[in-house]
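Quick start: what a row looks like.
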Amino acid sequence: MSGRKLLDTNILIYLSRKEISLTSFASPTDELFISVITYMEALGYSFRSGNEEKIITGLCKNLTVIHLDEMIVDEVIRIRRKNKIKLPDAIIAATTVKYKLDLITHNTADFKAILPKRNIIDPLVR
């Protein structure tokens, strides 16, 4: 299960609510990343409590944030021309493709048609 993994926004929220744990999808040798869009979505989220906000803020500070670059932007354009997908999801999908990452998400349906060759992991499915 080790490797390079990109966490979707919903995963950060589930982690902050203690509905899942990091060990449900990651090992100590994994490299964990978030897209800049996940960073913005997560920190702009309407938190239920100060503790939830503290956990998400801590996660965002300790995960590597992948910012938009020309390579990701070009892939986003390609993806959106071929698929009906929201811009944030297209950015996440493009990031997984260009950086050869596994995607950790509970919204697998949003990505299956776009990322058929990528490993999409839903830690909430047992």
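That is the whole record. The domain at 4-121 is CATH 3.40.50.1010 (Rossmann fold). The chain has one domain: 4-121.
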